[in-house]
Design brief:
The complex is a heterodimer of chains A (463) and B (122). With 463 residues, chain A is α/β, with parallel strands linked by helices. Helices cover 45% and strands 12% of the residues of chain A. Chain A starts with a helix and ends with a helix. Classes of the chains: A alpha/beta (463), B alpha+beta (122).
Chain lengths: 463, 122
């Protein structure tokens, strides 16, 4: 007899005794679910949550178009610069990015004081981090901003202020005559858009929390009498889970039911079978479908200039303007679920559109992990009770039942997502992992419990 | 001798044409209430609406060593003004270099370089 054999037998008996105790088994099942839901192994749980939200987002956007927001985005792009410079015969003195400060001053003047119907607010999404000697004197731009501000032209001008990840030079801030800044760089919010974030100056520990551009524009339009928005306290409001929407048109969201249904079916098939399309992703909407008025800087000049006022808004209704750079070589692009990668200024624009359209009902993030855990705890109890009632759990052999079980899980996922997204307007995270562990209810909990019942019955009979 | 005269004439024509090319005419100042000019003599900044003797159109020339500033005279004073702040006679804008602008780029776009020069519009 081996020396360790008695110990092995004792351990085996103890293990069996423990496993026959209901609380031990229940806690083991709970731990299994908690590992999948809380520990986020290899980020599989959170990644699948985000993938589902992104895919649902794509379908939801295609269900119906939205109206244009009272916002114009002016893009400074490479060809606009060349057109306005026109080989030295145009007004723009720069022929490439970055522009001379006097070019910025002219552009800001033309977008505000030169307009017959000036915007209520202008956000200039260019970050003047330092005085750049090759671009002229920053003070000249600062004096122009002060003149526009002091003479009460009615347009509230806000400049990009960086943030704690990229602090601004205090010298540049002084040269610009202490303009109003809005935080444009932040960390710790993932893919969400915070409504306030701290800005910081170089060589300084102190930070100042300011509303982000979308909140500033929204509040400016409210102040101009467009609507009431006293509900918004940017410092305490949850971050926006930006909802990328599209306008109704034949190229974007068709109004005709036949085109609409075909588009949804095509998108569904592309999503479900995307692995068969090699690397091709499901089709994205073109960026011109965004519900904001997008104008290239050069289109505001010439013999037939484009109006800065967004089309379709009421006469005398206030509107806002955002100016940003659209140049792939500047690397200011962000990934979106609907429009691929778009320039950073359009993130501010869409966050504003969300606030404008949904007010305090905008989509925001909610951690549902503990609700998922509660659901798992209740489901395990239910299945343990079921096992005690049925005393056996044969494997499913009929294909229709397997498919029905699969369809029930998929349907439940869509239904829960629909409730979260459409009714509660929250973007949940931490619940989709339940899909991975729910089949364990039958395959492990039910089977295991049924097996335990048999062991107990055999023990009782032998006694 | 004929060759020397010809060379002298060509040099004079060349000088005259370059001087003519630098003579510019300011036709308009788009936002005069918000536009400043700098006195060359004292470096003092003044609003163009405060230069009472300024009458448009007026002739100007490129500031020495700069393609981004012009110099004009008014009331016996010389002033510097940004090229971007004025409209010149015969000013042109190209309007058909790139008709459409690609706003979005593909999700799998990767770039590992920093902008150093202009890019083409295609």
């Amino acid at each position: 007899m081996k020396p360790l054999e008695p110990w092995r037998q004792r351990w085996s008996t103890l293990r069996h005794k423990l496993w026959c105790r209901l609380p031990v088994r229940y806690l083991t099942y709970l731990a299994l679910g908690a590992w999948a839901l809380l520990a986020d192994p290899f980020t599989l749980s959170s990644t699948s949550d985000r993938a589902l939200s992104r895919e649902y987002h794509n379908f939801y956007v295609r269900l119906s178009g939205v109206e244009m927001a009272p916002l114009t985005v002016v893009t400074i792009d490479a060809s606009s610069i060349r057109n306005l410079n026109a080989d030295g015969s145009g007004w723009m003195s720069s022929n490439d990015w970055p522009l001379d400060y006097t070019d910025h001053a002219r552009l800001i003047s033309d977008l505000t004081v030169k307009q017959e119907r000036p915007p209520a607010s202008l956000f200039y999404d260019i970050y003047f981090e330092e005085q750049r000697d090759a671009s002229g004197e920053l003070e000249r731009l600062g004096r122009r901003l002060s003149l526009i501000d002091n003479r009460g032209t009615g347009t509230d001008i806000v400049l990009a202020g960086g943030g704690t990840p990229m602090p601004m030079s205090p010298d540049a801030y002084e040269r610009l005559d202490q303009p109003r800044l809005s935080a444009t760089a932040w960390s710790g919010h993932g893919e969400l858009y915070p409504l306030s974030a701290p800005i910081q100056f170089q060589d300084s520990e102190t930070t100042e929390t300011t509303p982000t551009p979308a909140a500033v524009m929204y509040q400016a339009l409210c102040a101009a009498g467009a609507k009431e928005c006293e509900w918004l306290d940017p410092s305490s409001a949850p971050a926006v889970s930006v909802h990328w929407t599209a306008v109704e048109s034949s190229e974007c969201i068709p109004a005709e039911p036949s085109s609409h249904i075909w588009m949804l079916a095509k998108r569904f098939l592309e999503g479900v079978l995307q692995g068969l399309y090699s690397k091709a992703e499901p089709s994205h909407l073109p960026a011109k479908c965004m519900p904001v008025h997008i104008v290239r800087a050069s289109q505001l000049y010439g013999d037939d200039p484009v109006s800065l006022v967004p089309p379709g808004i009421d006469e005398d209704a206030p509107y806002a303007v955002m100016v940003g750079v659209v140049m792939p070589s500047t690397h200011d692009y962000i990934q979106t679920p609907v429009y691929e990668r778009v320039p950073g200024v359009l993130l501010h624009a869409m966050a504003f559109e969300n606030l404008w359209r949904l007010d305090d009902g905008y989509f925001h993030y909610r951690n549902m992990t503990y609700w998922g855990l509660l659901f798992w705890a209740a489901a395990v109890l239910l299945f343990m009770g079921q096992a005690e009632r049925r005393h056996n759990s044969p494997p499913r052999r009929k294909l229709p039942w397997v498919l029905l079980w699969w369809a029930a899980i998929a349907g439940a996922v869509v239904l829960v997502q629909l409730v979260f997204h459409n009714i509660l307007r929250i973007v949940p995270e931490g619940w989709l992992s339940l899909i991975a562990v729910v089949p364990l209810l039958r395959e492990i909990v039910l089977r295991n419990e049924a097996a335990i019942m048999k062991i107990k019955e055999n023990l009782n009979e032998s006694r | 001798m004929k060759v020397a005269k010809g060379l002298c004439a060509a040099a004079l024509i060349s000088l005259a044409s370059s001087a003519w090319a630098e003579r510019l005419v300011i036709a308009e100042i788009p936002s005069p209430d918000f536009t400043e000019a700098q006195k060359v003599s004292s470096d003092e900044w003044v609003l163009v609406t405060e230069i009472s003797s300024l009458a448009l159109p007026t002739s100007a020339s490129l500031a020495p060593g700069s393609q981004r500033e012009l110099v004009f005279s008014a009331g016996g004073q010389k002033y510097r003004i940004a090229r971007a702040d004025v409209v010149l006679e015969n000013e042109t804008l190209v309007t058909s270099a790139c008709d459409t602008l690609a706003l979005s780029i593909s999700s799998d776009t990767r770039s590992a370089s920093v902008k150093g020069a202009g890019e083409s519009c295609d």
